[in-house]
Prior knowledge:
By secondary structure, the chain is of the alpha/beta class. Helices cover 41% and strands 23% of the residues. The protein is built from 4 helices and 5 strands; from the N terminus they run αβαβαβαββ.
Amino acid sequence: IETSAFVSSAPVDLIFVDINMPDLNGLDFVRSLVGQKMVVFTTAYSEYAIESYKLNAVDYLLKPISFSDFLRAANKCKHLLACIATIQLQSWDYFCSDRSRFDIQTR
C-alpha cells in the first residue's frame, strides 16, 4: 500500500512487478496506480499474460528469468523512454484529410 502511494506520486519511469505478492496481486497493484507507468511483469504464471497486456504492460517475463530476457525487456523500456522524451521535446504538424493544418503541442 505504501509502495502504491509512492509510485503514484514519485517520478517513476519503470516498474518491475511480480504477479504473486503477499498483500496485493501485481495486476491489482498496477490497476491502483495513478498515472501511466511503464510496467514489466515478472511471474511464474503464464496465465496472466493477456490480462497484463490489457494493462499496457511493456513486457511479461516468466520465471526463471534469464539475463537475456531481462536485458531485452530493459532495452525495450529504454527505447520507449527515449521515444517519449523525443516526442515531448517536439511539436508536431498534422494535416487533416481536407488538407487543413493543425498543430499538436506536446508540452
